[in-house]
Amino acid sequence: MSELASRTFLSMKDLPSAHLLGTGTSMCAGCGSLEALHEIYDILGGKTVFVNAAGCMTMLSNYPFTPFRGGWLYASMASAAAGAQGVRDALDILLEKGRITADEDMTAVVLAGDGSTYGMGMSANSAAIERGLDFLYICYDNEGYGNTGQQYSGATPHGAKTATSVRGFPGEKKDLFSIWAAHRPAYVATVIGAEPLDLAKKIERAARMKGPRLIMALAPCPTGWDFDPKQTVEIGRLAVKCGVWPLKEYADGKLVHTRIPHPRVPVEDYLRTQGRFSHLFSPQRNESLLAQIQARVDAYWTGVH
Amino acid sequence: MSRTLITGNGAAAWGARLAEADYVPAFPITPQTEIIETLALWYERGEAKGRLVTLESEHSMLTAAGAAAATGVRVFTATSSQGLLYAMEMLYAVPGWRAPFVMVNVSRGVATPITLESDHTDILAARDSGFLQIHCASCQEVLDSVLIAYRVAEDARVRLPAIVNQDGFTLSFTREPVEIPEAGAVRRFLPAFDPQGMAFRASRPVSQAVAVLGGSQYSYFRYEAHLAALNALDVYEQAAGEFASLFGRSHPSLEAYRCDGAEIVFFMIGAFATKARDAVDRLREAGRKVGLARPRLLRPYPEAALRALLLGTRAVIVVDQNLSMGKGGVLYAELASALYGRSGAPLLLSYIGGLGGRDISAEEFYEMAAEARLAMDTGVVPEPRLLYTAEELRGIRKLQAIAQAGRAGMGSKP
């Protein structure tokens, strides 16, 4: 296991105690996306322009209210990364020409769900990475089109029940981490709100870098995954402990797992917590599918040291 | 001021250069590509200062354009046809950001069938987007209109993006003598972009393009943008007037060519209107009281100027180089709505012509004028018509026969 070299966040005690993101938003109770965003925003701070793609988080900024202390620009579902390009390029031009001072500069941050990120936003983001855009991309991944009532997306795991896959999603969750890493950007990391220290170290590291920095946060979703909102943190921890959500980072051509769960709890313990997998357990256990899902997780971790 | 032979695309690039656009998000598409290639070359050689970034699509290109304008730099971009349609979501979105910039559209017919040559169906799909629209009939106008467009778009009373439209091939690839104004004079006409505090700065946080809940807020913002577009009528005339006094070239929102005492008026936009101008000259020589009305400004629609010009004439021949399927010509319907029920309203004749670059001949202009004369005499307005000759149809039949023969030859037909 490799420890992140953090200057600030050595233990939970070091995490920010005051939160920057305003409260009273229209997000659902127990929203795992908002949980992660709170933690990320505490570290990034207000000198940021959040360029948003259509999704649940679009409803954060509702005229005339916003929980953000810095900038916000709603772009579209497919082109938030291009919006970040426009903001970054414009700020660079203004700095170069001396039309603004360095302290007026802001960081361009994309905030997009998995529906956008794994699907129609992919080409805009891929192109932003290939151009070496200096930006942070945050994908909150609740494994479906959550804002429209949880239809399956390219991020939906195999077997999950969604509004458009009532017998379980037949496809496979896309390995977006590898797709991103294949672009050789400055930084790629997975995070989850339930592991705030690991998240804080990664966001701090990303914030210190230049170039394309891509963060994906698994976002337990009470309404979409069908569980009690008070379980968000516990389910997030289980996702890490059972190994379906590996905490890892990619930088300088190297992939490092920042947490290797050992021993891993059975995936079943994670799946059981969510109504979207209830058909795997009742009316009778789907042994073959459960075994298949466990085998895939096991296969992933084989060779990870 | 120097006079040189350049294409419409070259003129568009000169417009961006003289406007000292800071930022050019780009994407290649025929027949527009020469514009971005020209700018890229100037920037690389250091002949002009600007940053050109090629995005991966027009949809992203327009997003970047809007976002950069919303951050407070002067933005120029260009597209055409399928690219404009691909960007359509953002075309409707960015005017609401109230982030002004200028885009040149090089009109080209839209698929299907896919073609490279010009008509205005592409740009008219952007009609209701909130972009201002200036339509050009010469390469000089392209250059001048880009400069005027910035003035209007950036005006505090307007703050909307603007499209300057030119015809693919007819203007984009045709060299015409163009006067390139002095940079200093242009700076006096068009000072640096002032974002008026609407920009992303660390010391002054703003949220832009936020969501609304409910029709009341939505209606408010949509109508505000509409009122801003209407403001652009006066702002345009002021800017064009100042441009005329500085540079000696007059580009009012509505060109009235030989309309004094005209009974019959052709109504067209774009480069093919210059063909109507020639026809008007010939018809005038033959003693006919014929003129041409050519709106440069299509959004906002110069309704008052059109009424002032056309009420009292006897027949207006609208030649639409576009086609709204299941309805007909877009300009015809728009003009009818401006004139209907007003006293002195002329008869309106509707023709569809010049689709996909199909020529409109002098004879066809004379024929349309003759049909207008007949309508005036009989009071009976002919049905809308497509300008299309029997010979062309025979040509199509011949191609169909060849296609059929080819299939028979391959044994797919008994």
From the spread of the alpha carbons, the general shape of chain B counts as globular
Q: What is the helical fraction of chain B, as a range of percent?
A: 40-55%
Neighbour order of strands in the largest sheet of chain A: 2-1-3-4-6-5-7-8
Q: What integer value in Å does the Rg of chain A equal?
A: 19 Å
Largest sheet report of chain B: 6 strands, mixed
- Structural class, from secondary structure content of chain A? alpha/beta
How many H/I helical runs of chain A? 10
Number of helical segments with 4 or more residues of chain B: 14
Query: What proportion of the residues of chain B form beta strands (DSSP E)?
Result: 15-25%
The amount of beta strand of chain A, in percent, is 15-25%
How much is the average pLDDT of chain B? 97
Q: In terms of per-residue confidence, which ranges of chain A show pLDDT below 50 for 5 or more consecutive residues?
A: none
Q: What is the distance, rounded to the nearest whole angstrom, between the alpha carbons of the first and last residues of chain A?
A: 7 Å
Task: Describe the overall structure.
The complex is a heterodimer of chains A (305) and B (414). With 305 residues, chain A is α/β, with parallel strands linked by helices. Helix content of chain A is 33%, strand content 15%. Chain A has helices at residues 32-44, 80-96, 114-120, 122-130, 176-182, 196-208, 222-226, 232-241, 267-271, 287-301, and strands spanning 48-52, 71-74, 107-113, 135-141, 187-192, 212-218, 247-251, 254-259. In chain A, strands 2-1-3-4-6-5-7-8 form an eight-stranded mixed sheet, sandwiched between helices. In chain A, helix 1 crosses helix 6 and helix 3 (114-120) packs across helix 4 (122-130). Chain B is globular, with a radius of gyration of 22 Å. Chain B has helices at residues 8-18, 33-45, 58-70, 81-86, 88-93, 121-124, 139-154, 183-189, 215-247, 273-285, 303-310, 330-339, 362-378, 390-409, and strands at residues 2-6, 23-26, 51-54, 76-79, 102-107, 132-135, 162-167, 176-180, 207-208, 254-257, 264-267, 290-295, 297-299, 315-320, 347-352, 385-386. The model of chain B has no long low-confidence stretch (mean pLDDT 97). Chain B has 14 helices and 16 strands. Chain B has 414 residues and is of the alpha/beta class. Chain A binds chain B through residues 46-47, 49, 51, 58-59, 61-63, 66, 68-76, 78-87, 89-94, 97, 99-100, 103-106, 123-124, 126-127, 131, and chain B through 22-23, 25, 51, 53, 55-57, 59-61, 63-73, 75, 89-90, 93, 97, 200-203, 205-213, 217. Strand 2 (71-74) of chain A pairs parallel with strand 9 (207-208) of chain B.
